[in-house]
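Researcher: Structure prediction, please.
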Amino acid sequence: MKRFVIASALLVAFIAPAWALEEGMYYVGLDTTTHKCSVMTEMKAGMKMMGKYKSKDEAEKAMASMAECKG
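Model: Predicted structure follows.
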C-alpha cells in the first residue's frame, strides 16, 4: 500500500505541471476560408494553428507580427 501511495504521488508530481501548462493557453489561428487570424482558447475546425501562447497579450503581440495575419 505504501508503494502505491508513493507511486501515485510521483505520478501526480510529474503530470500536474503538464496539465497546468495546457490550462489557460491561447492560440493564434488562421481561418483558411477568410484568411483572417484571431486569438482563441481552443482551435476550431477550418483553422490553421499559427502559434500557442501562455497569455492573450502574448498571442495578440505575436499575431500582429505574423505576415499571414496582416491584411
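Model: The beta strands are 26-31, 37-40, 47-53.
Researcher: Thanks, that helps.
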